[in-house]
Amino acid sequence: MKINIRNCNNIDHGEIEIKENTLNIKHAINGTGKSTIAKAIAASVNDYKNKSKELLQLRPYKLREDKDAVPVVEGCEAVQNFLIFDEKYINEVAFQADELVKGSFDIFIRGEDYERGILEIEAMTSQMKNTLNGDEEISGLLADFEEIITAFGREVKHGIHASSAMSQAFKGGNNVANIPEGLEPFKKFIQNDNNYKWVSWQHQGAPFMDMGSDCPYCATDATEKKEIIKKVSDVYKPKAIENLNKIVIAFQHLEQYFSEETRKRITGFITKIDGYTDDESNYLLEIKEQIARLRERFIAARSLGFSSLKDVDKVLNAIKNQVIDLSNFPYLKSEATQAKADIVNKELEKLQEIAGNLQGKVAKQKLLIRKLIEEHGEKINQFLRNAGYNYHVFLKEEASGEYRLKLEPNDIIGEVTEVKSRLSFGERNAFALVLFMFQALKEKADLIILDDPISSFDKNKKYAIMDMLFSKGKSSLSGKTVLMLSHDFEPVVDLIHHHRDRFESLSACFLENKQGHLIEKTIERKDIQTFVDINTSNLADQIHALHKVIYLRRYFEVINRKNLAFDVLSSVLHKRERPQIYEQREIESGVFELVLRDLTDEEFASGTAEIVGHIHDFDYDKLYALSSVNAEMKKLYLDTTSNYEKLHIYRMIFDEKAVATSNVIAKFINQSFHIENDYIYQLNPRSYQMVPQYVIDECDKAINEIQ
């Protein structure tokens, strides 16, 4: 697909091609607009799908007043599902508090095969679960069980927790059923279903009783009743009353499920005028324990499936262990409880008949999970070994039955916590990239975008990552539609030049941004050369002799041949009327300094003879004459199409004088930019604009001042 981009940040217009089922590497120097391309495509897809206006956020600042000049991206309308690796992914998706990547269970385990196996097991246990989940009385029973259990609060060594709802409501007796003396006039309010709201209202008005003799509720004289009114607030607390109501109702709902003896004792307890004794406290705790155990049995039966069967040796025994025998629950032994237990037990009997088949399905599912864990774990750990990271990962099963990806050092036992803060910047990026790959495979993204993914890594780690991501095989991004934007040239060298046989479906291009115009140029294997080869090729081209001087001098420098020919070439570039050479001269005993002296005629002839072997039309005097006339040098500069060559002509014209308005730009122009130092292999600067356009724009300003 061909993507047309207009009016997006620093891209005025341009077109790039993304080949489907191919790794599309787009190499570009910083400032070209790589991240803008990623953001523009993402915003365009989101806008198309969600009717949003994300793309408007990329409107260039220079066009803020032009309402007609809106950002436009065309050509990616077919993309429905994309995934981007960038800083946002690292910060928001990777390195969660309890796992290496958000949703690691879904990414590594829950696939089509896993879901199919779960469905097969669910189909065999669904009748029982549907029966139990569809019984409203059982649902109500479990809700009341939960209300009672919760009321006891946190367990303590002795008795009932003092701050629990049970203790707050009944420690002093049931003062709702047993209204204290003097408060009888308030009976209909205290024993109302919404009594806790009335008590709360009382508490809110109580402080106003001290403002005078009038009642704060009805504004009549309340002098004689003030103490009685205050007593309501002293005796009754809104939260305690609310808890008491809930617990009483829950116990009343459960009456039919208690044994006769238990029912009588509970009824006496919840209506008792005094608080409970230690013996009564222990009795209540015994009831709570049986309620909790029976509740667990019902819940286990309602959720019987792979999670509850995967750790048992024999499914048949596990099913038999779920049978409810009320002789083990004496406080809950009643006809009503037995009726509900019978529902569970009958369904369990049906399951016993197919236990063998069910065990086979469970075993098959366990085998699948083990296989997935081993495959994914080994894939990631092999990468960690190859890249030299002293860690390994493993999938750890949680209590929920899901698995989470964890990290552990090779030399220390125990998972790494707070992973994000413990790993280095490069380690975080590497882990995040690998996790991103598995997520992209899982989500089957139509388009996968990598925004400058590996520039922060060492050379050996870069290749290990690229091999992990793109080598041939189904467990990599090979054969997927991938857009990789990178200012790093090494991936291009590794994938296109060195190891082409290990990777398939590759495409590489160079992106140039020339004053807002985005230009794409293909990179073939033949375009990736050593700088020695590039110099040799350029010297053979029909280019100006001064450009050849630039390449030949650099060629001698690279091969460390700083001889007389090198000195002659250097003299040309430094605009010396006579060719000169640096030599050490003793200025006083034991003290030397470098000084320039003219070459002898013999030295000049020797150096020139070697140069002519490479530059047939080399003429020192003509080149010096040219370099001495700024107007002629300006013309050569303007006629030159290579930014690299322009930069050298600029340096010659201004003889390394800092004429740029920015000190940073000036240093870049005069000293810093030596593309040939970056890599053994590179692109020919005559064919690919490796010098940033903003640097050339700065040079142009000074050149245009020359008359």
From TrEMBL:
Keywords for this protein: Coiled coil
Regions annotated as coiled coil: 334-361
Source taxon at top rank: Bacteria
Protein name: Protein CR006 P-loop domain-containing protein
